[in-house]
Amino acid sequence: MQTITHFINGSHTDTSERTGQVFEPATGEQTASVSLASAAEVAGAIELAKRAHKSWSQISPLNRARVLFKFKALVENNIDELAELITREHGKVLDDAKGEIIRGLEVVEFACGIPHLLKGEHTEQVGTGVDAWHVNQSLGVVAGIAPFNFPVMVPMWMFPIAIASGNTFIMKPSEKDPSSVMRLAELLSEAGLPDGVFNVVNGDKEAVDTLLTHKDIQAVSFVGSTPIAEYIYETASKYGKRVQALGGAKNHMLLMPDADLDQAVGALMGAAYGSAGERCMAISVVLAVGNSGDALVEKLLPQIKALRVGNGVTPEMDMGPLISAQHLAKVTDYVETGVAEGATLLADGRELTVADHEQGYFLGGCLFDNVTPEMTIYKEEIFGPVLAIVRVDDYAEALELINEHEFGNGTAIFTQSGEAARHFCHHVQIGMVGVNVPIPVPMAFHSFGGWKRSLFGPLHMHGPDGVRFYTKRKAITARWPKPKHAQAEFVMPTMK
Ligand code: NAD
User: Which residue spans adopt a coiled-coil conformation according to this UniProt entry (predicted)?
Assistant: First the structure.
C-alpha cells in the first residue's frame, strides 16, 4: 500500500515511525497510509525552511511572483488529476473539487500582484531635510494547519501570499486527505520554487504542537474546528507568534416572506447539501419569517428527496459521502438527537443506500422542521447534510437569533426589500454577509473571516489582511544633510 510521506526541502522524505490511515470515503477502503511526523522531523523541516528564507527573502518580489505565474499554469494543466485526488480522499463530487481548486487559484492570481501589494508608504519632508517611509518585510518561517474539508483551497488561502511576501512555509495538511497538497508541493518545485521554501509535513497533534511552540516559527495560520482553533490561538500566542485561527460555523439563512422562493430554494439546496454540508460556509439553519415556512417546505422537500448521492467520481452526482466512518456516526447521532428533542424530521437521509458502495460513508439529505433555539441541533455545528428550519414571527426575532449565536462565520438574507437587506447588512453580527447570495465567500482580493467564535485573531485570510499577516512593517526616518547642531537632545524629538 502507498505511503504518503513528507515533502521537505524539495524532496519526498520520511523517517516517521508512526503512520495514520487514509480512506476512500465512497468505498470505505483504506487507500494509503500517511506518515505522522515526529517533533524532530518537524524541527528539521523548520531548520531547512529557515535556511531557505535567507535567500528567498532577498529575491525580488517580481521574480517571486513569476514562480507563482508558472505554478498557476501548472495547476491549471493538472486540474483533473488534482480534482480526482481530492475526490478520492475527501469524497466531494469532481466538479466541486475543481471549484475549490479554482477558488484557491484566485489567491495565487492575487499573490502574483505582490510587487504592488508589498509597496510601502513614503512621506517626504516630515521635518526639514527629513523623509520617512515604511517597508513591508517577510517574517521568516511561517506555518499553516489545514482541515480536511478543503484540502487544496484552504492551503491556497495561505501559502501563495506567504511565499510571495518572501516567507518560507511549513504546511501541515489534514491527515485525512493529504495527497492533493503533496501534489501542489511537486508542482511548486516544477514551477521553479527553490528547495525549502514550501514544505509539507504530514502529522497529527505532535507535528502541530511542534509548530506552535518552536522558536523559529513566526506565524501560524489555522483553519479547523473551534475547540482546536482556540487551542492553536492560545498556545501559539503564548509562544510569541502571530496567529489567525479560523473555527467552526452555524450559518443562518434569513428567509423573508417577500423573497423569490424559487431562487432561495435553489440557493439553499446547493448551500446546505453541496459537499455533503462539510463546508464552513454551508447554510445549516433557515429562519423562515412569518408564513414563508410552509411554502419553503413544499418546494424544498421534493428537491431533497431527488438529491443524487453517490461516488463523487461518478458524473452527475450532487453529493458524495462524508469524510469518515466516525464523522458519519457523529452526524447520524445528531439526527437522532434532533428527533429525541422534538424537531420534525421531514427528510431522513439515514434511509439512503448507494448501490455497490455499501461500505461507503453515505448519508442522504436530512431536513428538520420546527427546530427551536434550545435544541442541540440548532446550537452545535453538525457539519453534514442536515438542514434545520426555525420558524420565527418576524425579521427582528430572526436577526436577534443570528446575533446571539456563538458562531459568526457567514449568513445570508433572501428578500426583495432593499430596506430589510440594508438594515441586515448593517446590524448583523457576522463576518461575511450575503444578500440573495447563499455562500458569501469573499473573492481572493478581499479577506475571508468570521466573527465571534468562528475566528481567533485580528486578521482574516487572504486579500489585504493576508498580506498584512505575512509581513512586518519597518518605519524608517532618514536625514542626510549634516545636522547643524549635533549635540544630544533629551526631550521627545519633534520635527522642526
Ligand atoms: P479539526 O479541527 O479536527 O482539524 C484541523 C487541523 O487541526 C488538522 O490538520 C488536524 O490534524 C489538527 N488537529 C486536530 N486535533 C488537534 C489537536 N488536538 N491538537 C493539534 N492539532 C489538531 O477540523 P476538521 O475536522 O479537519 O475540519 C472541519 C472543521 O473545520 C469544521 O469545524 C469547519 O467549520 C472548520 N472549517 C472552518 C473554516 C473557516 O473558514 N472558518 C473553513 C474550513 C473548515
Answer: none
How far apart are the C-alpha atoms of 218 and 239, rounded to whole Å?
A: 9
Across the beta sheet with 471-479, what order do the strands follow? 121-127, 130-138, 471-479
Nearest Cα residue to atom 6 of ligand 1: 147
Asked if ipTM goes beyond 0.95, one says yes
Tell me whether residue 285 is in a domain.
yes
For residue 336, what pLDDT is reported? Answer: 98
Torsion sign, CA atoms 308, 309, 313, 314: negative
Beta bridge partners of 452: 407
Residues 74 and 218 in one domain: yes
Q: Say whether both 359 and 298 belong to one domain.
A: yes
- Same domain, yes or no: 96 and 128: yes
**Helical segments of 60-141, H only:** 61-77, 79-90, 94-111, 114-117
Assign residue 428 the CATH number of its domain: 3.40.309.10
Please check whether residue 147 is in contact with residue 225, taking contact to mean a CB–CB distance below 8 angstroms: yes
Phi first, then psi, for residue 357 (nearest 5°) are -135, 45
Closest CA to 381 of 450, 293, 457: 450
* 57 and 196 both lie in a single domain: yes
What domain range includes position 270? 251-435
Q: How many residues does the chain have?
A: 496
Q: How far is the CA of 222 from the centre of ligand 1 (A)?
A: 8
Q: CA Rg, the chain, in Å?
A: 25
46 lines ligand 1 (CB under 6 A): no
Position 487 scores a pLDDT of 72
> Rounded CA gap, 495 and 40, in Å?
52
From residue 274, alpha-carbon distances to 305, 306, 334 in Å are 14, 14, 19
Q: Which residues of the chain have pLDDT under 50?
A: none
- Same domain (yes/no): 467, 411: no
Distance 326 CA to ligand 1 centre (A): 15
Among residues 435, 465, 491, the one where a domain terminates is: 435
Q: Do both 472 and 334 map to the same domain? A: no
Read off the CATH number of the domain in which 238 is found.
3.40.605.10
Q: How far apart are CA 345 and CA 363, in angstroms?
A: 14
Note whether residue 369 is domain-resident. yes
Q: Choose the residue to mutate in 148, 211, 330, 430 for probing ligand 1, maximizing ligand atoms within 8 Å of C-beta.
A: 148
> Does residue 495 fall inside a structural domain?
no
User: How many Cβ atoms are within 10 Å of 32's Cβ, its own excluded?
Assistant: 18
User: CA 231, CA 73: separation in Å to the nearest integer?
Assistant: 37
Can you give the pLDDT at residue 278?
A: 98
